[in-house]
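Hello forum,

I keep getting stuck at the same step: I have a sequence, I want structure tokens, and every attempt I make locally crashes halfway through. Rather than fight my setup again tonight, could one of you with a working pipeline run this one for me? It's a single chain of 275 residues.
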Amino acid sequence: MKFGIAIFPTDYAIAMTELGPAVEERGFESLWVAEHTHIPVSRSTPYPSGGELPKHYWHTLDPFVALTAAAAVTTTLRIATGICLVIEHDTIDMAKEVASLDHLSGGRFIFGIGGGWNREEMANHGTAFETRWQVMRERVEAMRTIWTQEEPEYHGDFVDFEPIWLWPKPVQKPHPPILLGGNGPNTLKRVVRFADGWMPNRGDFLERIPELQRLARDAGRGPIPVTAYVRPDPQLIERCIAASVERIIYYLPSDGRDAALSALERLTTLTQPYR
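Reply #2:
Ran it on my machine without issues. Output:
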């Protein structure tokens, strides 16, 4: 079992230059960061977990900048977005950011992506909630083209460009793995269509893994790896192992250095027997 650590990398959280080496030294495989470009002051979209939206949602650093800092002070640690809101980024700019980070890290980047839940946030970027999944698919398809071709072009309803030159290309071939987050009714179909892995973060995802693999076989694909955010519970680790989950991710608090390091020590103790 692979284990990863995730955090909202805020301006008041532990520094990424300290967290990266701390995670690597304790034997974790990967470090994941969440993303929100901003939070509209006035919004009607409810927080999915219920209650008031925590302030770390609008204090989050840019994920690519945060991960570059962590990559610069580590050597083997995988660095990852969990998740990147691709519907809030320009396609060509994002393709260059991903390829640049994979280049600078020596091929250690994992591209976790998601559709988002905050209607007002994505609207400020020009994306409608109703079409966000088509926007995401086209942007992912276009980025794949950019990363793998010397003169890529793409023509869709939301993404459209004539042949371009764009370097660097990713170190990983054909490109960094793309993991699609979520656990909605149509998520598994989307994973099979345009992602390399599934990354659920809530709900009873274990029961859906056989369905995912059946859909993959029907589409002529091999087994699709699953990365999951779960509670720190030994029984859940055992269940994930039995279900052939590839990777488990645990969140650290964003409330300063001491809280993060204390939680990291507890998670190190929890996960050590399963590595």
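The chain has one domain: 2-274. If your local run keeps crashing, start a new thread with the error log.
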